[in-house]
Write a structure and sequence with these properties.
The protein is an all-alpha fold. The chain has five helices and no strands.
Length: 106
């Protein structure tokens, strides 16, 4: 909780530290869906849930996670910034929900 709420860290760095802290617990070694849900519960304005529907939403937008694209939270932060440039104030959670719903289409 401390890592994802540490405002001295950028959102992607905070998410990475939060995920690292959870990785020592049973059930959090592989996969990011459960970990991201827990981190989002701890910091709902800063974090977003990553699951298969969010992944499909990214793919629908032509975006993918890779070593060069950065983390999911980096992409979410970039999408939030792009929305802000268009006059929308979307939190990371709202962007994550949009990706979730987009990923559930079709």
């Amino acid at each position: 909780m401390a890592a994802v709420n540490d405002t001295s860290l950028g959102v992607p760095a905070a998410a990475s530290r939060g995920r690292a802290a959870l990785s020592v617990l049973p059930g959090f070694v592989q996969g990011d869906a459960l970990a991201s849900a827990l981190l989002t519960a701890a910091a709902p304005k800063r974090m977003a849930v990553y699951d298969r529907r969010a992944q499909k939403g990214l793919e629908t937008l032509g975006l993918s996670l890779s070593a060069t694209s950065g983390s999911y939270m980096q992409i979410v932060t970039d999408l939030s910034s792009a929305a802000e440039h268009r006059g929308h104030n979307w939190s990371a959670r709202e962007v994550g929900l949009a990706l979730y719903w987009l990923g559930g289409q079709g």
